[in-house]
Design a protein that fits this description.
Elements (H helix, E strand, L loop, with lengths): L4 E2 L2 E3 L2 E3 L6 E6 L4 E7 L3 H20 L2 H17 L1 H12 L3 H25 L4 E3 L4 E9 L2 E5 L5 H14 L3 E5 L6 H12 L7 E3 L4 H9 L6 E5 L2 H11 L5 E5 L4 E5 L7 H12 L9 E7 H16 L19 H16 L3 E4 L3 E2 L10 E2 L2 E4 L6 H4 L6 E7 L2 H8 L4 E2 L1 E5 L3 H10 L4 E4 L14 E2 L2 E2 L4 H7 L1 E9 L2
Parallel strand pairs: 1-5, 8-9, 8-11, 9-10, 11-12, 13-14, 13-21, 14-19, 18-19, 21-22
Antiparallel strand pairs: 2-3, 4-5, 6-7, 7-25, 12-24, 15-18, 16-17, 20-23
Helix pairs in contact: 1-7, 2-4, 3-4, 4-5
The structure holds nicotinamide-adenine-dinucleotide.
The site of nicotinamide-adenine-dinucleotide (NAD) has 30 residues, from helix 7 and helix 8.
């Protein structure tokens, strides 16, 4: 058996073990084997990290923006030079196909750093002139030590998406990656050390939500919390942060509709995108379409083709470049997904394909794999169509016209993303405007321009990330009024 790797916290520029010497097991989802241990940090570790961030703040916030940006470009270069190593690690830690980590996760982490390095240098504020009576200008100043909490589904991608704008605007950060996928954040700490990022500017503290996360969100030195994860955890964080008036950004769950009109262009490229929108990363992307709404006139033929294409997806070893789907992230998540499939059956759903665990042979025999699953015959109000499943499971629901499509699409408590497939541009605009969703893709999915506002409505989120929205979140606006009379 290979050696169990011990991961470290990164506090005040140093890699260090947790003070309490408590550790959490880290598993490789593809094999079900334990391969590492990560710190289960507590109040003491968080306190040291917040103090380090507070000490680093005056110097970092006073560092010229262009110089701060240089650090991110250097870190991005070092990360890019180690792209393959990071992609392999991300795949091993999360179960995602290494091809996906190589194509999406790690390149996007590099882009996040470069994007916010550039964006911060272009960030400007407003002036408001009062007809010769006075002039106002707005200062946008960093907040201090802030918390960034990220989930397991896109580990380094979402971790860098948060820390980059926070740091680029002059804040210092205490970041808590998911305890389920701590590997690439630990490797990222070494990259920061290699890039000679000043001590305390970024601190990475590992551990469970209950121990480390709770200590972080309740620490009085934290000025803002940027969170991505489940709606349940988001609500718990809001309950703690709101009475203390801590600035809060919440990116949470989704139950996203994919709306397919009869006039959609059913070419191979569009089919491939539509399929990806349901099953990429084993359906574990907050933006995945898990309710596929199809206009009734094409429902049967669409269903036949979709089932055929879904059956053709290869579930297998994430290391194998021919695998379309890898493993689910953990045993607990596997059990949750299988529970949801059982529930769909109980609710009267018809399993069109999948519905079972998939069992690749060889080294992956003990892994947590589920066959991509399509279900029909369930009404919009049932639990299967209301609750976020966050796995390779999607339902098919027919609709007649635009009004019904919009009503079905909006019929959940979530409102993160939607995709609409139609060749009628007027309909596309009208439907997009009526969808209760933070993001609408027309005839595409997951096309991301990092300048655009990113986030959800209803129980999917509060606030927006991306571009200028992220820079604004991580700064406080101060109005200065100068009398001219
Ligand atoms: P989660 O809520 O269980 O955990 C997210 C992070 O919060 C982890 O680092 C966890 O340790 C931490 N945490 C848990 N309890 C905490 C507490 N009490 N205080 C502070 N931190 C705590 O979510 P998950 O299972 O890791 O991720 C999956 C969820 O994330 C899904 O619901 C998915 O839709 C959502 N997600 C949303 C987006 C988005 O942009 N809206 C993106 C990716 C994932």
């Amino acid at each position: 058996m290979s050696e169990i790797r011990k991961l470290a916290n990164y506090i005040n520029g140093q890699l260090c073990p947790p003070q309490g010497r408590r550790w959490l097991d880290v598993f490789e989802p593809a094999s079900g084997q334990r391969f590492a241990e990560c710190p289960d940090s507590d109040v003491g570790d968080i306190d040291v990290a917040v103090q380090a961030a507070q000490r680093a703040f005056p110097g970092w916030s006073a560092t010229p923006i262009a110089q701060r940006a240089q650090f991110f470009n250097r870190i991005a270069d070092l990360l890019e030079a180690r792209l393959e190593e990071f992609a392999q690690a991300e795949s091993r830690d999360s179960g995602k196909p290494v091809t996906l980590a190589r194509r999406l996760d790690i390149p996007r982490a590099v882009s996040n750093l470069r994007f916010f390095a550039a964006a911060a240098t272009q960030f400007s504020s407003e002036a408001h002139a009062m007809d010769g009576a006075a002039i106002n200008y707005t200062l946008r100043q960093p907040l201090g030590a802030v918390a960034c909490i990220s989930p397991w589904n896109l580990p380094l991608y979402l971790f860098t998406w948060k820390i980059a704008p926070a740091l680029a605007t002059g804040n210092t950060v205490v970041a808590k990656p998911s305890e389920i996928t701590p590997l690439t954040a630990t490797m990222f700490a070494q990259v920061c050390i290699d890039a000679e990022l000043p001590p305390g500017v970024l601190n990475i503290v590992h551990g469970s939500g209950a121990s480390t996360g709770q200590a972080l969100i309740t620490h009085p030195g934290i000025k803002a919390i940027s969170f991505t994860g489940s709606t349940r955890t988001g609500a718990a964080i809001a309950a703690v942060a709101a009475p203390r008036f801590v600035k809060l950004s919440l990116e949470m769950g989704g139950k996203n509709p994919t709306v397919v009109f009869a006039d959609w262009e059913a070419n191979e490229a569009n089919w491939a995108t539509l399929l990806r929108s349901a099953f990429a990363n084993q359906g574990q992307i907050c933006l995945c379409g898990s309710r596929i709404l199809v206009q009734r006139s094409i429902y049967e033929s669409f269903k036949c083709t979709l089932v055929e294409k879904t059956r053709a997806l290869r579930v297998g070893d994430p290391q194998d470049p021919t695998s379309d789907l890898g493993a689910l992230v953990s045993r607990a998540h596997f059990d949750k997904i299988m529970g949801h499939i059982a529930l769909a059956r109980e609710e009267g759903g018809k399993i069109l394909c999948g519905g079972d665990a998939a069992a690749p042979e060889g080294r992956c025999a003990g892994g947590w794999f589920v066959a991509p699953t399509l279900i029909e015959g369930l009404g919009p109000g049932c639990r299967t169509n209301q609750e976020e499943i966050f796995g390779p499971v999607a339902t098919l629901i027919p609709f007649d016209g635009d009004d019904e499509a919009v009503a079905l699409a909006n019929a959940t408590n979530y409102g993160l993303a939607a995709s609409v497939w139609t060749s009628n541009l007027t309909r596309a605009h009208r439907v997009a405007a009526r969808l209760e969703s933070g993001i609408v893709w027309i005839n595409c999915w997951l096309k991301r321009d990092l300048r655009t506002p990113f986030g959800g409505v209803k129980q999917s989120g509060v606030g927006r990330e991306g571009g200028v929205d992220a820079l604004r979140f991580f700064t406080e606006a101060k109005n200065v009024c100068i009398d001219l009379e």
